[in-house]
Amino acid sequence: MHPIRRSAEQAGYVGALSSAVAKGGRRHSLALWVFVVFGLAALTGCSPPRAYESALALADTVAGETPSRLKAKTPAPPRAPVAYRVDGRQRAADLYLPGDGKPRAGLVLVTGAVPQGKDDPRIVAFAQTLARAGFAVLVPEMAGFRDLRIHPRDAREVADAFAYLVSRPELAPEGRAGMAAFSYAVGPAVLAALEPDIRERVRFIVGVGGYHDLTRAARFVTTGWFEHEGRWQAIAPDEYGQLVLVRSAMAYLASARDRALLEAMIERRLKDRAARLDDLAAQLGGEGQAVYALVTNRDRDRFPALFDALPANMKRDIAALSLADKDLTRLKARLILVHGRNDNLIPYPETLALSNAVGRERARVFLIHRILGHVDLSLAHVVSWQFWSEEMPDAWRMGRATYVLLSERSDE
Questions:
Q1: Alpha carbons 131 and 125: distance in angstroms, whole number
Q2: What is the domain partition of the chain in residue ranges?
Q3: What b/e readout covers 191-200, taking b as 16+ CB neighbours within 10 angstroms?
């Protein structure tokens, strides 16, 4: 098992926009972002007011909790806990509303697997940005995410949140409502949008850094290898994905001793990334050895056999969460898909595959070459050659994606 580079609390795994950080020249960079996105109106026939709103929303996302023009122009969005029941299932969430109390659309915001869940400061900041942009934002409490565990029931939790949102017309005027999800959560969001009780009502899904085939994603997380257009490519995978994989696998192990040993491995590496694990690995039973062998393997050719050795119920749930064998043409939602080419948790061809499976007429894909990794935005200083030659086109792409999202609101 490779060392975990950072603790779960420090990991940038929440969402591309919610964890954005400008590396240098913040004020100049934000001003340029406003200029670039506003320029969309003149050069691409966009609505100038909406282009400007897009610029403000994007700049506020980058600003996070710090001041921005959007914060100065809009009242602070109230945040309130809500409890609701759907078909007897008790749920909880946080609801963010525009400061003027007049939502122009509703949105269910689903974070990835992070210990703080919906209370992560970055998610809170992004939900507030969306609320300032006119959305009623519902952020559900996802039972397993705080424990870094994934499960097929995640899709039903997302669907219940959406069902509650659209049951309140004042939160989704004219039925305008959709979802936004990051990383692993893109899969459950798409599966939720296929649920018969809400499928006709989900108008859009924003997916950042998502997957299509969860088994392929697991292969990349462990080996770093992915395939695109018939060519194999490799980059060093982010070991946070391995942490989530191990934590999820622990729930499927019958042996309490194996679970305890894997937890001890995680804790040891969190304290010392160079710590040896041989002594703990030697004590694992059969199922624990299977998980350990998969996570420590770097040979793509060995992956299929190692994956097949995992507990049967774990493989069953991975298959249930995968989108590759689902009929995605049944989706009614429009997809707005964003992925970084340098993503080291889920490779960008997964988003391309998802778009192809849905049908390109219903999916807009924005591949970001430089400024987006998996879930973090970063900019060089505005005076650098890298910014002008490589990052400005990405700023335009992010601006276009924001513009498309804001187009889902009512015009009132």
A1: 10
A2: 26-213+323-406, 228-321
A3: bbbbbeebee
Cα–Cα nearest to 107, from 70, 136, 143, 65: 136
CATH of 26-213+323-406, one of 3.40.50.300, 3.40.1280.10, 3.40.50.1820, 2.120.10.30: 3.40.50.1820
First CA to last CA distance, the chain: 54
Q: How far apart are CA 53 and CA 18, in angstroms?
A: 18
For residue 116, count other CB atoms closer than 10 A to its CB.
Answer: 16
| Mean predicted lDDT score pLDDT of the chain | 85
% of the chain with per-residue pLDDT over 70: 83
For 10-54, the pLDDT digits (tens) are 333 333 333 333 333 344 444 445 455 545 544 556 777 888 888
Q: CA 61 to CA 131: how far, in whole Å?
A: 12
Banded model confidence at residue 60, pLDDT cuts 50, 70, 90 = confident
Q: Could you write out the DSSP letters of every residue in 324-344? A: TTS-GGG--SEEEEEEETT-S
CA distances from 145 to 142, 246, 391 (A): 6, 14, 33
Question: Using CA atoms, how far apart are residues 348 and 93, in angstroms rounded to an integer?
Answer: 30
* Cα 158 to Cα 139: distance, rounded to the nearest angstrom: 9
Q: Helices (DSSP H) in 133-272: which residue ranges?
A: 153-166, 186-193, 214-223, 239-250, 256-271
* Pair 146, 115: CB distance under 8 Å: yes
CA distances from 100 to 104, 172, 298 (A): 11, 15, 53
CB 358 within 8 A of CB 204: no
Beta strands across the sheet bearing 363-368: 79-86, 89-96, 135-140, 105-110, 177-182, 204-208, 334-340, 363-368
Adjacent-strand bridge partners of 359: none
Contact 319, 238 (CB under 8 A): no
Q: What's the pTM?
A: 0.87
Q: What's the rounded Cα separation, in Å, for the pair 392 and 193? A: 34
